[in-house]
Amino acid sequence: MADDVSTGFVDPTREAFAGFRELDRPGPIHMFNLVKFRAQAAYEDGTVATGAEAYASYSRESGPVFERLGGRQVWIGKPELMLIGPQDEAWDIAFIAEYPDKDAFVAMLRDPEYRKAVRHRQAAVADSRLIRMQPGLPGSHFGEMNQ
Predict the structure, then answer these.
(1) What is the pTM of this model?
(2) Which DSSP state fits 7?
(3) Could you state, in order of their start, the residue ranges of all structural domains in the chain?
(4) 49-101: per-residue pLDDT in tens?
(5) 14-23 long-range Cβ contacts below 8 angstroms, 24+ apart
(6) Which fold has domain 15-135?
(7) Residue spans of beta strands (DSSP E) within 29-143
(8) Sign of torsion, CA 63 94 71 18?
């Protein structure tokens, strides 16, 4: 588990979220997640848990909303070593979540059950990256995508 980072990225900015909503194309979206947990969760109410435990609570409570809106996890892995990239970036988990379309993702963020669950994510995460991607069919060579 990573050490706490005081200036990590946890929530999207208004500008980034507006850009997400403006990017309008039909079909599914993949959200690539890189997550670094806090050693100790930072709950405003003083709840004591590790970052990993708080993230498990987020997953458990937000999962039914994610599934109800047609979401599914399509890939997960545990990063082991930064071979190319900043050596001070270390991630505890990496995964790709699929949504039927951008509106399903927006609906999840606005859902009252999800909004309650997200407090666990905010307490758990020291730093993260969330990258919206258009899914494609892999070609036979590095970086090749078949349409």
Answers:
(1) 0.89
(2) T
(3) 15-135
(4) 999 999 999 999 999 999 999 999 999 999 999 999 999 999 999 999 999 99
(5) 20/102, 20/105, 20/132, 21/102, 21/106, 23/102, 23/132
(6) Alpha-Beta Plaits (3.30.70)
(7) 29-37, 72-77, 93-99, 125-133, 137-138
(8) positive
